[in-house]
Each structure stands twice: as structure tokens, then as C-alpha cells.
Write a structure and sequence with these properties.
Pfam families: SF3b10. The chain is built from four helices and no strands. With 93 residues, it is mainly alpha-helical. The longest helix has 18 residues. It is elongated.
């Protein structure tokens, strides 16, 4: 039988914090819904750009060249979900 003391818990939390700093898309405790959705959209768009067959499919659907479809997808990555929501004064507390 192994005992899970406070040191093991600290070790797990340190690993989680390391993963969150290494991979921004996995989120953190202070991330709001808008930031999480933006990360998901950017990951999806980057995946489409990175896979030539998916990029060709999007280009055919939009009746554009592959280069134009890639450019359009890159432009969508700037603000894929619109501007960030207004912060309330209570968010800083």
C-alpha cells in the first residue's frame, strides 16, 4: 500500500503546471471560456493548414486556390471568435 502524502500531490501539481506552460492550448485555472474557445479554433485552423489534403478540401469548397485558402485561414487565426469580452471590475479580485 502506498500513501499519497502532500509531497506527491505537490509533484502532480508541478507536472500539471509544467504541461500547461509548455502547451498553451491545454488551459489553466484562470482561463475563461473565450480564451479556451479561441485556442480550440486556432488549433483547428492550424491543423487544416498543416494537412495538405484538408487544405485542398477547403480550397475546393470555397472555390479558391490552395494558396488563397491558406491565406484566408491564416487571417481567421488573428481573432477567430471576435474581440475579447469586456472585463468586469470583479474579474481582478
Amino acid at each position: 500500500m502506498t500513501s499519497s502524502g502532500p509531497t506527491e500531490r505537490f509533484h502532480v501539481l508541478a507536472q500539471l503546471e509544467h504541461l500547461q506552460s509548455k502547451y498553451t492550448g491545454c488551459g489553466h485555472a484562470d482561463m475563461n471560456r473565450w480564451e479556451w474557445v479561441v485556442n480550440q479554433h486556432r488549433d483547428s485552423l492550424a491543423s487544416i493548414i498543416g494537412h495538405p489534403d484538408h487544405l485542398s478540401y477547403v480550397a475546393i469548397c470555397e472555390n479558391e486556390t490552395r494558396a488563397r485558402a491558406q491565406y484566408n485561414l491564416l487571417c481567421r487565426m488573428v481573432q477567430p471568435c471576435g474581440p475579447p469580452p469586456e472585463k468586469s471590475p470583479l474579474d481582478d479580485l
